[in-house]
Specification:
25% strand, 2 domains, Dihydrodipicolinate Reductase, domain 2, six-stranded mixed beta sheet, Rossmann fold, globular, 8 helices, alpha/beta
Length: 338
Amino acid sequence: MKKYNVCVVGAGLVGKKMVEVLIERNFPFDQLKVFATREREEIIAGKNFNVLKTTDSCFEGIDFAFFAGTEGEKGASLEFAWKAVEKGAIVIDNGGDFRMHPDVPLVIPEINPEHLNQHKGLIANPNCSTIIMLMAVAPLHKKYRLRRIIASTYQAVSGTGSKALEELETQIHQYVEEKNFTVNVYPHRIFLNVLPHIGSLSDRFEGYYSEEVKMILETRKILGCQDIMISATCVRVPVLNGHSEAISVQFESCPDIATCREILASTEGVKLLDEPENSCYPLPVDVSGKDDVFVGRIRKSTALENAIEMWVVGDNIKKGAAQNAVQIAEKMIEMHLV
C-alpha cells in the first residue's frame, strides 16, 4: 500500500485526537508530523512528538494536512491552508473558515463522498453538531425525503476546548469547597447550569447564534437541498464529552417506524440503541470515545405530520471532528483521488 506524508496542524484536543485516530485506524502514513503555534515536546497517543512551529515551508512534501481548527475561532487554515495546497498537500480543515466556500466540498464520507470529486485541494469537515445530526437524518432522507428539521442540542464543554474542560472541573471543586466560581470561558458558570448560547449572534438569521446557523447552512450544502426548512437551538451543558441532540424530522411521505429502525441499524457508522421500555437509549457518558453515532427514542411525532422524533448522541471530538477528517482522507484514497 502506498504511504503518505501526513501532518496535523494544531495540538489541542482535536489535533491530539487526530493523531490518535490516524494511529488507531492504521492510516497509511510514512511520516506523521505535528505543527502548532510554537515549538515544543508533546506526548500524544503515548508517543513523543517534536511539535514544530507552523510556517509556509513546513508543508513541503506533505500529502495530507489535517487542520484541527477550534470551535468558534478563526483557525490556522486562514493563514496556511491554501499555501499548503500550493505546496501539493491535500488540506482537510476542521475549522469553520471555508465550510460554505463554493469551491470547498463539505463532506461526511458516509453521506456525500461524491462531493470529493469536485475538490480543489481543500476539503472542509462539517461542524460537530451537524455531523452527529446528519449521520442519523441523512439515511432516512434517502428513503422519505426531508422537508423540515427541528433540532435542540445538548453540547459538551469539550467542544470549546481544553480550557473549558478545566473550567468545569475547577467549578466542580469550587462548589464542593464552597468557594466562589471562576468564570472565564463562558459568559456564565457552566457547572449545574445550561447555556443556550454557542458562538456569536449571527447576522444571517436574527436571534440565532452561529452554531445554530452552521447546522442550517451546512445541512443544506451537504445534502444538496436548499429548500429544507431547518431550525436549531444549541445549548452548552455541563457534560465533559459527547453531544446529544433531540431531533424532529418531517418528511414528504409518512415514515414507518420499524423501517426507520431497520435503515438506521444497517447504516455504516450508526448504532441503534432504542429500548425505552428498558431505559436503554444513548447517553454521552457511554458514547464518549466511540467511533459511531448512536440513535434511540425513535417515535412518531405527535405535533407534525409525516414526522418522527429521535435522540442522537455522538462523540464530538472523535466522530464530530478528528475521525470524520481522517475518514475523508481514507475515502479519497479509496476513490483514487490522490
